[in-house]
Sequence to fold (878 residues):
Amino acid sequence: MLFLELVLCLVAALVSLVGTYLAIVEKDLLKAVVFSALQSTAYAFIYYLLMAPDIALVYIPVAVGLYPLLLVIAIRKCGRFEEV
Amino acid sequence: MIEGVLMLVGSVLILVGSLFDLLAALGLLRLPDLYTRIHALTMGTIGGAVLPLIGVALVAAGWVELGSYRWYLAGAAIVTAILILMLAPAGSHAIARAAYRARSPSPSYVVIDELAKKVRGGGR
Amino acid sequence: MELRDLAVSIVMLSIPIYVLAFLLYVVRIVKGPTVADMVIAVDALGYDLAVFLTILAVLFRVPFLVAVAMVLALWIYALDIYVAKYLEAKEVGA
Amino acid sequence: MDLETFAKFVINVVAVVLVLNAAIALYGLLARPNLLKKIIALTIFSDSINSFAILIGFRLVKGFENPVPPVITSVPPSESYARWFLAKSVDPLPQALVLTAIVINLAVTAFLVALAIQIYRVSGTLDARTLAYEKARRGEER
Amino acid sequence: MMRYVVVFLLSLATYLVFVGSVTLYDIVTGIAVSSVAATVFGRILVRNPRKLEVRRFVELVRYLATFIATEIRAHLELAKIVLSPNVSKSIRPGIVRVRYDLESDYGVTLLANSITNTPGTLVVDLDEEERALYVHWINVRTLEPEEIRDIVSRSFEEHARKIFD
Amino acid sequence: MGSRLLAALSMCAMALALAYALTVGVFSIYIPIELRPLAKILVTSAYNESTPLFSSMTPEIVTAVVWDYRGIDTFFEVAVFYVAIVATAALFRGIERSAPRTSVGLSTIVRTVTRIVALMIVVVGSAIILHGHLTPGGGFQGGATIAVAVALALVAYGLAKLVEHRIDYETSLKVRSLGLLGLSLSACIALIAALILNTNAYVFQNQPKTYAPIGLPYAVDGVLISGTVLLLNIFDGIAVAAGFALLLILLSQPEDVARERVLSSEGGE
Fold:
């Protein structure tokens, strides 16, 4: 069982790396928010696998439920694209 | 004995569900536009999430070593399944409607489009 | 007892298939031409992750980990309707 | 590779990935011009650092079974249960430290978002370079 | 009164399943939380308390049987489409208009969710004044309105009417 | 898009290679086989009836640390949370009552589902709060959970509908203040009791300590309530939920009215 846990942890870590990189590089802010939701989901999975259900329970509402809302409100008010 | 059979049925359901999940992922990659992809998403949530959750409930109910907690696991799995049955279609409907109204993307591979008259016929 | 071990090994067999499906979903999230495509891929990923967490809670024999799965299944819906409201209305809060 | 080495490898992968995430987020925080992008980068940065604390609290168990969360499930704990729990529980302290940090991060992020919205209302842009240029121009006028 | 009881029971059941044990503490706190939730949500959730009868719950079980049968057929159909070598040749997508004949919000929601939950059909929009659903259908077989209604929504609509109207 | 995916994948490969080098090399992260000494003390003393002077009598060790061992610290972190919300409200002063008259909302299907789900979210959040000392959870988790119900209602129904149902700025401000007041009072409850009984006690004292013989009972009739931990969890949950609701209501005020007010006040100065 420990082997399974470790392999899943590895996969989740790599997925979170992909999510973070794309969230920072992306110029469309709404897409960046979705990528950061992907990264948050991967982090929540890592917390679950590292046996921290307390943190997972507080992280899922905050990072999947409330961060995107704050950012989506701000993006709707302030414009969607980042000029470079 | 009956517990063993329950667990076996449950695990087969989980296996079938995972196969549906793989099919849904393939469909999400292969189908041409958003609306057809949502059909694949539906397969991923009903066949790939609700079915294995019922399987998990059966497995948990049959696993005697878990003690009294197995009923908790089974009940929670069933409730999660009911939640997904309610939430997933509402979410995909919301996304489809918003994408149609925002015209991102416009449905291209369409034989007939009767909604266009209502949404786009009047003003624009 | 034979049956129980058989069932557990079948469940273990399904885990790599799930992980493969997750990776394919991630590919769709990365590729997705529009935001809506990405959001439905995140959706599918989230719901299947909830199932996966339930399976893991049974396999690890730690029962209250299943609460995390339930909470995750409730929240993935939120992202959907935020993005839908963004695309549909002029103000998200209106 | 035996299981202990593999466990070490995976923990190292997670640690490296978290450091890389923090580094990428720091790059975004410093180099991207849009204030909202900076806020997204800031949330990713703080989450990575928090995850690092959780990772430090992880442990291995003798015999390489999987550890259990720090919650006593049989109340009151018997002698044998207490020994078993001590042998398998992960470290609760980093989790307790991170728990409040996540919620406070959210409140601070909300404040930053409010600040960004207010800046947009007043100056009509969220580009850090344009804002700095505006400030310099106003200074010249005075 | 009836509406509060129903909401109370729903929230108590959710509470106890989520908590996962039935001790004295769970029951006391569960009753407290459920009474507060029932007083807050009762008027919002149940508009017409006279419709709460046992017959409707029996109908719910029969609806489930129809639902499962439709699901299996639709899943196999979509799996065939996904696995076919040329995907865009094997589908004929289109958005069709399906009229419905239901009164309550819950009935419409049940109908629309059942249609969306079937792979192959997806409710894109609904028009409450004309009582029509706009359904994205992956394999448009016919363009006759009544035939479309037969294939897509007839069985679900019967059950939804018996359950909620 | 292809080049970006390539960059991300090469980063993954780099992470794997670096981690492999670290594993065979010297600078590996230390993963303990035994618990650290401090954690060992926490794990053995969090629920231990034989050493009542050191125990917090809370089987959930994370909650025990948050609300007992480092209770004052957590209290000041709640104060930081409070200050952030006050700062947002101060930044947006003058526009908090400009709620729109009509709401747009989403379709009927989404509204109906949100209505049912909001009930379940509130119940689940209350369960997380009230079982914070028994299973994973507590005030912060439950409060954030309930806040998501407000967020969903806000998006699905619109702000005007929420104000109609009396979930507005004023109410959430009052509820939040009530939660914070309760938090401070239950922190001092042992102190107040000691003043009345003419003995000693500490602030944030849960169980009896040396030189402070009084404390809240950890069980009532065999039902475990863990002294002040339950009270603190409840009030913290109320404060967090109402605080986030306040933030969301403030942030989702309509933009045209708000901008007008902000610009006019700036011009007036």
In short: The radius of gyration of chain D is 23 Å. DSSP finds five helices and no strands in chain D. Helices of chain D lie at 3-31, 35-56, 79-88, 92-123, 128-141. Chain D has one domain: 3-141.
